[in-house]
Amino acid sequence: MALPPKILIKSAKFIWTSMWKVMMSNLAARDHSGAYIRPESQFRNFISTDPSHSYQPEAGRYALVVGYGCPWAHRTLIIRSLKGLQDAISVIIATPSPDAGIWELEENSENCGNLPQLYQKAQAGYTGRSTVPVLWDHQTKTIVNNESSEIIVMLNSEFNHFAKYPHLDLFPEDLKEAIADWNQRIYHSVNNGVYRCGFAQTQTAYDLACTELFATLDELELALEHSRYLCGDRLTLADIRLFTTLFRFDVVYYSLFKCDRRRIQDYPNLGSYLRDIYQLNGVADTCKLEQVQQDYFGNLFPLNPGGIIPSTPDVTNLLKSHNRERIGASPE
Q1: Region of residue 132 (left: phi > 0; alpha: psi -120 to 50; beta: else)
Q2: How far apart are CA 261 and CA 122, in angstroms?
């Protein structure tokens, strides 16, 4: 005898909900309200030209370990490209494993085939999260830093002797306060805000995160109406930090993370701002949209249990004229 549909449905929902809660607890830490909490990065050393620092800037000594799908890692690739540091700092590509739940290295590095092994080589007994990006030191066989916001500051200023564009300063002294202000506002509600929506484990947590996300996007839309970039006519680190989230928004966060009140291309100013930065020399080369979709839809099983990946994204919109020269001068 077949089970009545009602019993079957209730049983399936109970089993799936129970499994989903277990998987989500491993994927994303939460507080008592069900809101996502992003763990702090653990490696926080700095490369500096200051002689007292252990890590000195040298060409060929350091590598960036990145995954193309990760917006935090994407920041570091863009700064490396804009500064012209491709010959000085190598890149190690990692791809997420849908079954193992770890980042695997496309090619073995330091006799390691995956990111957890690399973290263990840097610190034996390490028990934290093994995340990208990683700024790796080949000389001392360790992780210098795995906090993207700090890595991009180092790439901007500490490797100018090896950079093709040493005079490009994305973190100028006179704008540091304004950049810090934008970073603080954007990080919580936008950069991390999309994850707070996607990884929310209660309706209340999701509603709060989604409301804060779109309130900040509305604020950004107004700010960019009369300002080419966040801090005026000059491109800064704040713009790059925002860009990598906006780049993924319409093709991933809008549907998979339920950030579906509006698309970025539905905002006249934010949409053209996204195209403006995408079309800067060297930026598009770091933007792997198909890989982004593969990494999110193919690997976040609790959010997409069917594993179905949307059709190939259309980049046509990103190549349209942005017409933002009317607002301000081009960046250096």
Answers
A1: beta
A2: 43
Please state the length of the chain: 332
The pair of structure tokens assigned to 17 is 């909900």
Is residue 243 within 8 A of residue 274, CB to CB? The reply is: yes
Q: What is residue 332's predicted lDDT score, i.e. its pLDDT? A: 53
φ, ψ (nearest 5 deg) of residue 47: -90, 135
Q: Which element (helix H / strand E) includes 113? A: strand 112-114
Superfamily designation of domain 62-157? Glutaredoxin (3.40.30.10)
Q: What are the tokens at 106?
A: 């496309």
CATH number for region 173-326: 1.20.1050.10
Q: Is the pTM of this model over 0.90?
A: yes
Pick the more confident residue, 36 or 104.
104
Is 197 annotated as catalytic?
no
| Non-local CB neighbours of 93 within 8 Å, separated by 6+ positions | 66, 67, 68, 105, 106, 107
**Active-site residue among 68, 70, 119, 278?**
70
The single-letter code of the amino acid at 291 is Q
Cα-Cα-Cα-Cα torsion 241, 90, 106, 284, nearest 10 degrees, comes to 40
End-to-end CA distance of the chain: 74
The pLDDT assigned to 3 comes to 62
The arrangement of strands across the sheet holding 134-137 comes to 112-114, 103-109, 90-96, 62-66, 134-137, 142-145
- Residue 170 near residue 237, CB atoms below 8 Å: yes
Count CB atoms within 10 A of the CB of residue 75. Answer: 26
3 state SS of 126? coil
Gap between the Cα atoms of 185 and 162, Å rounded? 33
Distances in Å between the alpha carbon of 302 and those of 7, 19, 101, 104?
A: 23, 9, 12, 20
Tell me if residue 195 is catalytic: yes
33-82 pLDDT tens trace: 878 788 888 999 999 989 988 999 999 999 999 999 999 999 999 999 99
What are the angstrom distances between the C-alpha of 227 and each of 81, 110, 124, 275, 280?
24, 46, 48, 15, 17
Domain ranges of the chain: 62-157, 173-326
The rounded Cα 315 to chain-centroid distance in angstroms is: 19
311 burial class (0-12, 13-18, 19+ CB within 10 angstroms)?
A: exposed
